[in-house]
Design a protein that fits this description.
heterodimer, A: about 180 residues, alpha+beta, 2 domains, two-stranded antiparallel sheet, 4 helices, B: about 650 residues, Aldehyde Ferredoxin Oxidoreductase,  A, domain 1, Aldehyde Ferredoxin Oxidoreductase Protein, subunit A, domain 2, 3 domains, 26 helices
Chain lengths: ~180, ~650
């Protein structure tokens, strides 16, 4: 298989430029409200500012994948004399904290780079961060071409995951005999 | 019924009985007063009769989140705290930025109304629908910032926002503030009322939505504001001092150049002007001090400005500072910036007003020098200058010895001490300490603002009109070109014709009529901000701000679904301003109280000042005693005030009747 070009969306975070205002949280929650902009609520934002003013900790973190279990251990990082819990850097919606969950339903939230309808030129948290703590870049990366599975294969894979390959093969055999 | 921008609910807390109620509010009140300061004033008028003493359980302490707080409108983050002031005995409204107001809205409340007194020290924990009065006996005597940290830890809620008092509030010091991270509600002794109620802190966490009535239109305006802010801030107004040339509150944390303040404001007890203070040496030293302790420039909720800073002085706890407290201790003590940053840390933990407190201490030392206070009063005070101020601060917040007298502020302390101490009370208005300014030529605009402002604080009324005339006609013409903010083209004419010297200069220009219109505009903008919870730094305070009288009506209408235009908004602001005046009139405020300190300007013009005050009252719909008239109250839909005045024998017949 050959190499292909892929568009990668990058939000660069410069902690030194963050003034701690949480405008990123505000605009994120408003954009993802339904209907759009009909409400705001930082608790629904897919970005969260980890903020400890007295330790000068200002750290915007984006919501990533949902994870069903919490970590077994936690690491502590000391960077420039400031102590960070590992959770500070983590993008996961996980059982050990309330970040990146819908406050009513508890369902996980994930940053979609504002690709929602209508698609935005850049993520709105970046647009509203006029201090440039958040900036947006698109770059092209060469990645290994992946074989794109066809539709039937995807469907069958789901059935295999659910019932196991042997059960599936038995069922197909039974069905073909009846036919 | 769906409520927009506001939550439609208040919290009623009775600390005497430990009772908590969630009460739906009347949407009609929003139409009449918007929210914030306006609805606070209405509650105080309705529920606190003028006989109630500030330290009575019947005094209310109200925390309001402005109408737009919690919406995406940039800069809408102010908490308006109101009560009757132990210092002035009038209505106090002290405000703070930060993160408290939006959190309160997201918890589901527009106002927290506190009455009664708790038998022991408590704090309030508001977490959405769950509201608790919790024991705070372990927080006795703790610093305000320390308290916030302890509460967050004990609740295991790092996102909780906390407003707390320090030792000064607990001891009912008249200069006690309520501290909230980088912000504080400092003026008029609001922290003393909180301490009197036995309330150490309020912690709040909210995760509910705030709704917008017309989202597309609302966001279009918010985006416009976000686009305008860097454009405007990146283009400082030429010819205006750096701290006032951009947006935000004066950029005391960013800018180290303090030539203007150190050479024009008074040192000591508003006493000495040091004309050649700002030398190269001082500048270098101060710059180094500021840059070595300032860790980061920070903002309030949803605002791109950076008016505050994290301050880490080696050897003392980190704290946050905003604006002018940087200089008040320094100048009161004739000291330097390093001292200013150090003592402000202790003052912040104690929770005291950075304007009043340094002046009270400088006043005490003047009385000592004059022999009015004696060695006995100062027994144990160190002999070094800085040491004296730390010692005095410690005595005041503990109400120990002479500190017990000084804790009542300059006005009351002077009267308690007697022996001529009253003469040293030369910088208060309505019993409240003012910025240390003593100037030469009467400024008619500032005369009216100092004299009549209900906040009793100049920064809460000045703003959108330049503080001084520009030198040349060309500069003025350039300035008015994009001055879309004026409510009327006439204002541009007043500015264009305003000269630094000659016939069209102070004190007779701007004319009496023009002066009143300029003041009316600036005051109106502040009353709008204070109802919306909008920071003055993006609206009523700087020149050419993003918010103004022409886009506010659209923004408010889109947020709330009400349909108000410029005239309707102006009328609401006038209603709120008039209501505040009526509240204070009912507590005894009259024309004789509406005056700046005698020595505020060297050159005074009594006849002109009389005309200014008469004309201002007339424009505002007050009679010659400064009392809102029957006609103006009727027009504003507040006949109930006239009825109450009549019952109390307060004469509010109009000016015209008196003149005929």
């Amino acid at each position: 298989m050959g190499k292909v070009k892929k568009k990668v969306k990058v939000i660069k975070i410069d902690l030194d430029k963050c003034n701690g205002c949480r405008a990123c949280e505000v605009i994120c929650s408003a954009f993802h409200a339904s209907p759009k902009y009909s409400s705001s609520n930082p608790a629904r934002a897919r970005i969260r500012l980890i903020r400890e003013p007295l330790q000068d900790v200002y750290l915007p973190v984006y919501a990533g994948e949902y994870t069903a279990a919490e970590c077994m251990g936690r690491d502590k990082y000391v960077i420039d004399g400031k102590e960070y819990d590992e959770c500070s850097f983590c993008r996961a919606s996980c059982p050990s904290r309330d970040a990146f969950k819908e406050p009513d339903s508890g369902l996980p939230l994930k940053c979609d780079m504002c690709e929602d309808d209508p698609p935005q030129e850049e993520p709105l948290c970046v647009k509203w961060c006029i201090n440039d703590a958040l900036t947006y870049e698109e770059r092209e990366e060469e990645v290994e071409e992946e074989a794109v599975p066809d539709e039937m294969e995807t469907g069958l894979k789901a059935l295999v995951d659910k019932y196991g390959l042997q059960n599936l093969m038995d069922s197909v055999a039974r069905m073909s005999q009846k036919a | 019924m769906m409520r927009y921008a506001e939550t439609g609910y208040n919290l009623e807390i009775d600390l005497s009985r430990g009772n908590i109620e969630r009460v739906e509010t009347d949407p009609k009140l929003t139409e009449l007063h918007l929210g914030g300061l306006g609805t606070n004033a209405k509650l105080l008028w309705d529920r606190v009769p003028p006989e109630v003493e500030p330290f009575s359980p019947d005094n209310l302490l109200i925390f309001a989140a402005g109408l737009l707080c919690g919406t995406p409108a940039p800069g809408a983050n102010r908490t308006i705290v109101s009560a009757f002031s132990p210092q002035t005995l009038f209505m106090a409204f002290s405000m703070m930025g930060g993160f408290f107001a939006p959190e309160l809205k997201h918890a589901g409340y527009d106002q927290v109304i506190i009455r009664g007194k708790s038998p022991s020290l408590v704090y309030l924990w508001i977490h959405n629908d769950k509201v608790e009065i919790r024991d705070a006996s372990h927080l006795h005597g703790k610093g305000a910032i320390e308290t916030a940290e302890l509460i967050r830890r004990e609740l295991k809620e790092p996102h909780a926002q906390v407003a707390a008092i320090g030792l000064a509030g607990e001891n009912r010091v008249y200069m006690a503030s309520i501290e909230h991270g980088r912000s504080s509600a400092s003026r008029l002794g609001i922290g003393a009322v909180m301490g009197d109620k036995g309330l150490k802190a309020i912690a709040v966490r909210g995760t509910k939505d705030i709704n917008i009535a017309r989202p597309d239109q609302f966001m279009e305006l918010c985006n416009e504001v976000m686009r305008y802010i860097p454009l405007r801030d990146g283009n400082p107004i030429p010819g205006v001092m750096p701290i006032l040339a951009g947006l935000g509150s004066p950029k005391e944390m960013l800018i180290h150049d303090e030539k203007w303040h150190t050479e024009n404001f008074m040192w000591g007890n508003a006493r000495t002007r040091i004309k050649d203070y700002w030398t190269k040496d001082v500048e270098e030293k101060w710059k180094e001090t500021q840059e070595s302790v300032r860790t980061r420039l920070i903002s309030c909720y949803n605002c791109p400005m950076k008016c505050g800073a994290i301050i880490s002085v080696p050897g003392i706890s980190t704290y946050m500072m905003k604006c002018f407290s940087k200089l008040t201790y320094t100048m009161a003590a004739y000291s330097d910036l390093d001292f200013g940053f150090r003592i402000a840390q202790r003052a912040t933990e104690y929770g005291v007003d950075g304007f009043s407190t340094p002046q009270v201490m400088a006043f005490a030392l003047e009385l000592y020098e004059a022999g009015i206070l004696t060695d006995q009063d100062f027994a144990g005070m160190p002999s070094d200058n800085e040491g004296k101020f730390y010692w005095l601060l410690d005595r005041i917040v503990r109400r120990e010895g002479i500190g017990d007298v000084l804790a009542n502020g300059v006005y009351w302390a002077a009267r308690q001490i007697g022996k001529g101490a009253e003469a040293y009370d030369h910088n208060t208005i309505k019993k409240h300490e003012q910025l240390p300014l003593k100037l030469s030529m009467l400024n008619p605009i500032y005369f009216l603002m100092w004299a009549t402002g209900e906040k009793i604080n100049i920064t809460q009324i000045e703003g959108n009109f330049p503080q001084a005339p520009f030198e040349t006609r060309e500069e003025r013409e350039a300035f008015v070109k994009d001055w879309v903010h004026v409510p009327d083209e006439k204002i541009k004419e007043y500015f264009l014709n305003w000269e630094p010297r000659g016939e069209n200069s102070f004190p007779y220009y701007p004319t009496v009529e023009a002066t009143c219109e300029i003041v009316d505009w600036q005051e109106t903008m502040h009353y709008i901000d204070d109802a919306l919870g909008m920071c003055a730094g993006l609206s009523s305070f700087p020149l050419k701000p993003p918010y103004h009288i022409h886009n506010f009506p659209i923004l408010i209408s889109a947020a709330t679904g009400m349909d108000i235009d410029k005239d309707a908004l102006w009328k609401i602001a006038k209603r709120n301003r008039t209501l505040l005046r009526a509240i204070n009139v009912r507590r005894g405020l009259r024309r004789e109280d509406d005056r700046p300190p005698e020595n505020h300007w060297k050159k005074r013009f009594p006849e002109l000042e009389t005309r200014l005050l008469d004309a201002y009252y007339k424009l505002k719909g007050f009679n010659k005693e400064g009392i809102p008239t029957k006609e103006s109250l009727h027009e504003l839909g507040m006949d109930y005030i006239s009825a109450d005045f009549a019952k109390r024998g307060i004469d509010n017949n109009g000016q015209s009747e008196e003149e005929s």
